[in-house]
Amino acid sequence: MKFTTTCPHCQHRFQTEYLDSGVHDLHCPNCGRRFALFIRKHRFETLFDLGTRALMDGYAREAVVNFAAALERCLEFYLRSALLERAAQEHRDLDAVTRELGATWKLLVSQSERQLGAFAAVYLAREGRAPEFLTPQGVGADFRNRVIHRGYLPRESEVQDYAARLFALMNRLLEELGDAALQGTLMQEREYAAALEALPDDVVAVFEEHPGMFRTPRDQADAPNVLPPGQDIAPAITRPPSLSQPVNARPLNAQPSNTQPLNAQPINDAAAFQAALKERGTLVSKLFGGKTGG
User: Fold this and answer.
1) Burial 109-142 (b: 16+ CB within 10 A, else e)
2) What does the alpha-carbon distance between residue 287 and residue 48 come to, in Å, rounded to a whole number?
3) Is residue 292 over pLDDT 50?
4) In terms of CB atoms within 10 Å, which of 26, 81, 243, 261 comes out highest?
5) Residue 294 located in a structural domain
6) Has residue 224 been placed in a domain?
7) Domain annotation covers residue 280
8) CA distances (Å), 102 to each of 23, 186, 200, 246, in order?
9) SS3 for 154?
10) How many other β-carbons are positioned within 10 Å of the β-carbon of residue 28?
């Protein structure tokens, strides 16, 4: 999927493809000058936005694939953020913890069942209760498998329900993480800082924050990222990432972030998804360019 960006040299707007790393080495097709573009957005956010755009364009089956992948990456984000929060509480070396976490994840990366088990254990340790939402019904596993593995062609209404279920679940996990989400953000910022350091001195670095269906905080005590009316993308900034130092963690003996059982609030919240789609769907559409289907 392509998105629109702006050359920092001549202000020419053009489209380029999303890269998995979030770091884009670009040459402007108008002036020919090189610049590096860093997208300050998590993978689960991008995947869910891609699913939203596919759904808006009428590609229901393709949307399911992106939504399902977004959930898996959101669970990974929770796991990494929670473990980094614990390491910060124990005042452990960030570099060492990052290396160990990366080595451990390599043991899980090719098997989603292992990832799910690891998430469940971390969730139980942090929140003090079982992740009862991780049932096949809770995450829409049967619907996902029918679409992805059995070639089922879903109706748009079915995909809307599936998206609403995952949207509510992922939002809930982000709310439970609270400021701990900044620990996961810190890892991305550190990767970007390393890539920035490796750039030649004459290459301009641009950092963009794209609008989307989720609003994961990127700065401590960050308020919801609400764009001004009519603005379809956050202003590009030519500065290093702001999170280059360890983030304050909640005290080690603090109570879980939310002691209310997750099933006290319906996960399949179609109203919440539709409200977010109405508020932010146009921004997602403008970001990727083109017209959406009815």
Assistant:
1) eeeeeebbebbeebbeebbeeebebbeeebbbee
2) 14
3) no
4) 81
5) no
6) yes
7) yes
8) 19, 14, 28, 18
9) coil
10) 19
Number of Cβ within 10 Å of residue 192's Cβ equals 23
pLDDT per residue as tens digits for the range 175-224 = 999 999 999 999 999 999 999 999 999 999 999 988 889 978 776 544 33
Determine the pLDDT at residue 216. Answer: 81
For residues 189 and 179, what is the distance between their CA atoms, to the nearest angstrom? 16
Question: Has residue 92 got a pLDDT over 80?
Answer: yes
Q: How far apart are CA 261 and CA 259, in angstroms?
A: 6
CA distance 114 to 155: 31
Sign of CA dihedral 279, 281, 282, 283: positive
Query: For residue 293, is it within any domain?
Result: no
Q: How many CB atoms lie within 10 A of CB 149?
A: 8
Picking from 215, 141, 167, 170, the residue whose alpha carbon sits closest to that of residue 76 is: 170
Q: Residue 211 is which amino acid?
A: P
Total domain count, the chain: 1
**C-alpha separations of 135 from 64, 138, 140 in Å:** 18, 5, 8
Chain mean position to CA 182: 12
With H, G, I as helix, E, B as strand and everything else as coil, classify residue 202: coil
Which two three-digit tokens encode residue 37? 């573009």
Domain that holds residue 178: 2-288
Q: Roughly how many angstroms between the first and final C-alpha of the chain, as a whole number?
A: 20
Residue 289 gets the label, from left (phi > 0), alpha (psi -120 to 50) or beta, of left
Amino acid present at 292: T
Which residues does residue 5 pair with via DSSP β-bridges, in sequence order?
14
From CA 218, how far away is CA 185, in angstroms rounded?
6
Q: Select from 32, 26, 34 the least CA-distant residue to 5.
A: 26
